[in-house]
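User: Okay, second chain of the day. Same drill as before: sequence in, C-alpha cells out.
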Amino acid sequence: MNLIIKKGRVIDPGSDVDDILDVIITDGNIAAIGYNISSEFNANKYEVIDATGKWVVPGLIDIHVHLREPGQEYKETISSGSKAAVAGGFTSIACMPNTDPVNDRAAVTEFILDKARECGICNVYPVGAVSKGLEGKTLAEVGELFEAGVVGVTDDGFPVRTSQLMRRILEYSKIFGFPVISHAEDLSLSKGGVMNEGAVSTKLGLKGIPKAAEEIAVFRDIALAELTGGKLHIAHVSTAGSVELIRRAKERGIPVTAETAPHYFTLTDDALSSYDTNFKMNPPLREKKDVEAIKEGLADGTIDAIATDHAPHNIIDKDVEFEYAANGIIGLESALPISLRLVWDGTLSPFEFIKKLTSNPAKILGISGGTIGVNKSADITVIDPDAEYTIDTESFYSKSRNCPFHGWKVKGKVWITIKEGQIVYRNGTVLSSR
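Assistant: Same drill. C-alpha cells below.
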C-alpha cells in the first residue's frame, strides 16, 4: 500500500520534529517527509489521506502489556490483544511473561512470536521471566530467552524475591544489553492488602498496602543497579516516594528508567469507595499527593514512559467480593484519551507527551520504531486531538471489559493506525494487514 498523508502536524520527538508536513509511504517504508511535497508524487498510485487538524506521530509503543496467551485465552489472546492495541494507536507492545506456562524458556517465546506473526497487525515483543516459573528461586535460562527474541526480563506480578537474584540478573543485563523490569513490592508489607493503606482503607474496612512496600523495593533495586551498572527499569510507579527515589538516582547517574500508567496520574483511592473491583489493581491507587507527584515526575523527565499495564480479566475474576477480586485493568483502548488529559491540563506539551509513548519506550527496550524517518518502516498513528466522545467498553476489541473509565467523556481519539505501511485500523474498525 502506498500512502500520502497530507498537511498533518507531524510530532516526532525521535527526530526533533513538530511541524505541518506531508509524509509519503511507499512499499511499507517512509519515502519522503517535507513541506507540500505531495504534488511531486503521482496521486493515482497513492491513497491520499488529508490529515489537516490531525497529529501524525510514530506508532505508539506500550512496554507493559499482559496478553494472557498461552494459558488464559478466555481473558485475552495475542490476536485480540493485538487488535485492541492498534485500536488504541499502538503499533508495538511488549508482553509480560506471567502466562501459563511462564515465558521462562525459548519455546514459549517462540510460540508468542509465531502467534503474533499469524495475526500480523501489531509488533509483539516478548519479555522473559527473571526466575524459573516466576518462583524467585533460580534464574531462568536468560541467554536462551535472549536468543529466542525477548527484549527484557521481569518477574512482573511478583518482585524479584531476593537481592542476590536481582543482583545476578542485573549483571546479566550488562552482558546482553536488555532492561530488567522491576515490579517493586515488598511482599512482607503488602501481603493480604487490597488497596492503599490510609484514611480511605480505614473507612472502608479493607486491609491496606503501605506506600513503603513499593518504595523499599525501589530503593533496593536502585542500590543494586548502582552496584552492578545493570540496566534497571521500574514498572508502574505509583507513589511520590518512588518518584523522588528515581529522581535522585538519575541525578547520581545510575542507569534507571521508569514508567507509570494512566490510572496512577488520573485516579485516587477515593474511587474505591464504591467497592467497584474495576478500581482494584497492584500497585493500588494512591492518594492525591501521589497523583500530583507522578504528574510532576512526568513533566520533569523523572518518569520516562507511559505504559498501560493492560491486564485483562474475565467477569468471573472481577465480579466477586472485593477482597477476592483479581488485580488489574485493561488499558490499551483507553490510554490515549485518558493520558491526553496531561496535555489539556498543561502538565505536558504535545511533543513531550508523544515522547513518553514513542521514542522513550523504544530506547528503554532497545527496539526499532518510535520515530518517523525516511527509509524507516512506516509505523504511524494519526490522532484526532479534537474528537470528543464517551468511552464505551462494549466497543472494545479486547476480550475483557475490566476498565474503570467506561462512560467517561474524553477528548482525543485514534483516527488511523498504520503498521509497516498498511492501514490496520481506521476510524473505529480494525483491518487485516494481510
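The chain has a mean pLDDT of 97.

User: Thanks, on to the next one.
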